[in-house]
């Protein structure tokens, strides 16, 4: 598939961490972008608004505020966008919050994702790209995680809704022949990150001399992906819509986006301590329900398709976040 040099693109979740970075890059490359977001108060809405403020000013940018699950909102955005490509990044995130408010995950990740699929059925984009999560691998003991591994035993309700979205998308691609790619993201971090994620929470606590909660006694491992690396991978995949080898095959694929270099949680904390020049007060706690001990991406398929794999060193990525954090909160 060849996309127009200046494509029309609809991005759900454009006020979110990844969505903001994606839209900023798309605009820089000359695409026309319509962003859609509900601005929900799951975390500080002023941070979301600050992201949107930095997208304003481009004649190729349109922002639509609405809820995926509400009738007509997303359809209105799609009519404005007339998209060649749809990126669906909007979701209710967070493994732990799913224990408190599972209904939010049903509304956003199931009903909301179905509405995106239905809009794609009508709009017929050249490529539909959907964000999933490494959480779907659950307690998979085989590493690294490969896209063909079983994902039938998720450990959190968040992961279950992401797996359900993947399955819905597969059926939708089969029935309506919309070329579809599902990304499984692996612990994305970097500037403008989410306040509910470990790097943001740890930085805030360490700078205020408050203890940090270290789950699993620090023995967990995560395959961290710097946000600029993730966006590069996503953009390289954008023109590579899956095409069926025969009329019976499904135009659908799942791709890990991770570098395949897991880091221990204690090593992660030490990297942050070195960057901040401070030592964390550590409150060691057991694993929380729904957490997995390790994530570990196989980047082989991504590299085969694009010639690229995430490779930013953790120290460089943590520094970029810390620099942004100090600047955003005027701590310099």
Structure notes:
By secondary structure, the protein is of the alpha/beta class. Helix content is 39%, strand content 17%. The strands form 4 sheets. The protein has a 7-stranded parallel beta sheet with strand order 3-2-1-4-5-6-11, with helices on both faces. A two-stranded parallel ribbon has the order 7-10. A two-stranded parallel ribbon has the order 8-13. Helix 1 links the parallel strand 1 and strand 2 (32-37). The N and C termini lie far apart (47 Å). The mean pLDDT is 95.
Task: Give me a quick take on this structure.
This protein has helices at residues 17-28, 45-53, 73-81, 97-100, 102-123, 157-176, 198-207, 227-237, 265-276, 300-306, 314-328, and strands at 8-12, 32-37, 61-65, 85-88, 127-133, 180-185, 188-189, 212-215, 221-222, 225-226, 252-257, 263-264, 282-285.
């Amino acid at each position: 598939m060849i996309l127009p040099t200046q494509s029309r693109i609809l991005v759900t979740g454009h006020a979110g961490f990844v969505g903001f970075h994606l839209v900023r890059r798309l605009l820089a490359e000359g695409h026309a972008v319509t962003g859609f977001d509900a601005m929900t108060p799951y975390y500080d809405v002023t941070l979301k608004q600050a992201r949107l403020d930095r997208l304003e000013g481009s004649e190729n940018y349109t922002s639509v505020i609405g809820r995926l699950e509400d009738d007509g909102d997303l359809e209105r955005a799609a009519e404005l966008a007339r998209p060649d490509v749809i990126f669906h990044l909007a979701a209710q995130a967070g493994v732990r919050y799913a224990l408190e408010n599972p209904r939010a995950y049903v509304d956003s990740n199931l009903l909301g994702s179905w509405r995106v699929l239905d809009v794609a059925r009508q709009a017929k984009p050249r490529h539909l790209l959907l964000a999933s999560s490494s959480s779907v691998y659950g307690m998979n003991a085989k590493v690294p995680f490969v896209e063909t591994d079983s994902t039938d035993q998720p450990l959190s309700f968040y992961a279950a809704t992401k797996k359900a979205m993947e399955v819905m998308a597969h059926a939708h691609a089969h029935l309506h022949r919309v070329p579809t790619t599902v990304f499984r993201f692996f612990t994305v971090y970097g500037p403008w990150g989410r306040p509910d994620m470990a790097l943001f929470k740890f930085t805030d606590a360490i700078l205020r001399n408050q203890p940090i909660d270290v789950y699993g006694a620090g023995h967990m491992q995560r395959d961290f992906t710097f946000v600029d690396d993730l966006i590069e991978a996503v953009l390289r995949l954008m023109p590579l819509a899956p095409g069926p080898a025969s009329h019976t095959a499904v135009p659908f694929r799942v791709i890990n986006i991770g570098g395949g270099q897991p880091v221990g949680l204690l090593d992660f904390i030490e990297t942050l301590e070195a960057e901040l020049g401070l030592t964390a007060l550590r409150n060691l706690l057991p694993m929380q329900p729904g957490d997995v001990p390790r994530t570990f991406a196989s980047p082989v398929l991504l590299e085969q398709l694009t010639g690229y794999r995430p490779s930013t060193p953790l120290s460089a990525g943590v520094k970029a976040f810390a620099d942004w954090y100090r600047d955003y909160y005027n701590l310099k």
